[in-house]
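Let us practice reading a record.
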Amino acid sequence: MPVAELERHQGSVNAIAWAPQSCKHICSGGDDAQALIWELPTMAGPNGIDPLSVYSAGSEINQLQWSASLPDWIGIAFANKMQLLRV
């Protein structure tokens, strides 16, 4: 049974990455061309969990990775591009 369900993407989710320095932050990327950063609470409210931050890319996000050595940087890959985001 899931302990949390994060459902604010408007298309399929293609990638997720846990923040290496935080047990409660996760980033997701999907077909809606959005990278969403989530802060997981101890308990979700009745309307679910809203993302802490939203970034819109040029097209669907295929892969993402949180930097292990620079915890406020995330790399995302979409189309023929890679972008580095400072969060």
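A brief commentary: DSSP finds no helices and seven strands in the chain.
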